[in-house]
Amino acid sequence: MPDIVKEKTLLEVxxxxxxxxxxxxxxxxxxxxxxKDINTGVLMWGSPGVGKTYSMAALAKKYISExxxxxxxxxxxxxxxxxxxxxxxxxxxxxxxxxxxxxCDKLFIEDVGTTKSIGVQxxxxxxxxxxxxxxxxxxxxxxxxITSNKTVENLAKSFDERIGDRLRTFRVCNLGTKSKRNEIR
Length: 185
Hints:
Helices cover 45% and strands 13% of the residues. By secondary structure, it is α/β, with parallel strands linked by helices. Helix 1 packs antiparallel against helix 3 (52-65) and helix 7 (152-158) packs antiparallel against helix 8 (161-167). The longest helix is centred in the last third of the chain and has 16 residues, at 124-139. The radius of gyration is 16 Å and the shape is globular.
């Protein structure tokens, strides 16, 4: 991948706030987990502000520098974009939004399941969207990297057991509860 393409991809994938994130800046244990061969994906969970997005930004930058095609999306934003395709005046169809996420080498999905409280069921639409993404990426052997405030068990309760079963194949990283958000300037 040419440097100009890498730079453009970097700016599209990594949030401006985290553009300086580097793998060397995250804990040794987490870095070791993320630098292992990742076949299915990673679920990084913890309380708000513990460094999930920062860590994922560092990992995305690493993959972009290695020439992988990387995409990133906030889960709720994706759902809103997909819902908008049902508007009669919509200019995109669902597949135009989903296909690039299915076909990229590495997909980062931020804040899965954070719009509903623990134990509250996600909508059928949200469940279907997440299940399609997970299923198709697993079938294509393309890793998916997910952040959430919920554990695998709580995500299974919010979506359903099919989602939980698929997420149990991921490397699960608990980042804990201590917020670091105010440390990043």
